[in-house]
Write a structure and sequence with these properties.
- The structure is a single chain.
- The radius of gyration is 23 Å and the shape is globular.
- The chain is built from 14 helices and no strands.
- The protein has a domain of 166 residues: MetI-like (MetI-like fold, Orthogonal Bundle), CATH 1.10.3720.10.
- It is mostly helical and 274 residues long.
């Protein structure tokens, strides 16, 4: 018994140490965003700035005219992309779970097969399609090819399979059509799964780098990820500005998680208890 307890304490100590080592670079980046350039290049890995300052953020937001635009572009792309994904993925998942139509099984297995395809394989085909449609260097080139996500279609389908049929039957008794039942009854009651889906989809759009790099050419259309790379190229050694920009780029994701945290874990419970 003592040996088992000692092993557990040792394991926890190793995991905590590894966690702190992993967390340290992020903590230093946050700290560096409040440091002066002289303090950063002066050496040392202290996490508490000697002379905390907000000048780095003022320079980025007010001294660099493109940075606020890049943040706004990311909000537009991620916001529209998330709304479209939530709507289409949920509708597709509900159709596969509840509606009866020819080829439903084939479509479902095709979706399962498509989940296994790496997204990188579709980069060039999507590029050629967007170019033929004249949509390169537009937000649509980033939103339209990813307007649906097979993984979240499957997730929503699993949720709706276990959704109580009694609720839908009661809605039909009240005279609601299948469409109205979905939007007025089923969709609001799936808010936990929808919130979970929304977090991951928004994060995927917000953190996307490779597709904007391929599809966008004009700096005024850059999202924050591509804009931050451009900003870093212009300020190669100004780490205080680069760290401040990096911190600004992750704040929306952290804020979204905090707001939707109460739904986050609940959204994974798509098993029989639903």
């Amino acid at each position: 018994m003592r040996k088992s307890k000692g092993w557990r304490i040792t394991l926890y100590a190793i995991l905590i140490t590894y966690g702190l080592i992993t967390l340290f670079p992020f903590a230093w980046a946050v700290s560096a965003s409040f440091k002066t350039y002289a303090e950063i290049v002066g050496g040392g890995l202290n996490l508490i700035p000697q002379n905390p300052t907000l000048d780095n953020f003022r320079h980025i937001l007010f001294g660099h005219n493109m940075f606020p635009r890049w943040i706004m572009n990311s909000f537009i792309i991620a916001g529209i992309g998330t709304i479209v994904n939530i709507l289409l993925n949920s509708m597709a998942g509900y159709s596969l779970a509840r509606l009866r139509f020819p080829g439903r099984g084939i479509i479902f297995y095709a979706i399962l097969a498509a989940i296994t395809i790496p997204g990188q394989i579709l980069l060039i085909p999507n590029f050629l399609i967007m170019r033929s449609l004249g949509m390169l260097d537009t937000f649509g080139a980033l939103i339209i090819p990813t307007a649906v996500n097979f993984t979240y279609i499957f997730m929503m389908r699993q949720f709706f399979v276990n959704f109580p049929r009694e609720v839908e039957e009661a809605a039909k008794v009240d005279g609601l059509s299948s469409t109205m039942t979905f939007f007025r009854i089923v969709f609001p009651m799936a808010r936990a799964s929808i919130a979970t889906q929304g977090i991951f989809v928004f994060m995927s759009f917000w953190n996307e780098f490779l597709r904007p790099l391929l599809y966008l050419a004009s700096p005024q259309n850059f999202p924050i990820t591509l804009g931050l790379r451009s900003f870093q190229d212009q300020n190669v050694s100004w780490w205080n500005y680069i760290m401040a920009g990096s911190l600004l780029s992750i704040l929306p994701i952290i804020g979204l998680y905090i707001v939707l945290n109460k739904y986050f874990m609940t959204g994974f419970r798509i098993g029989g208890d639903k």
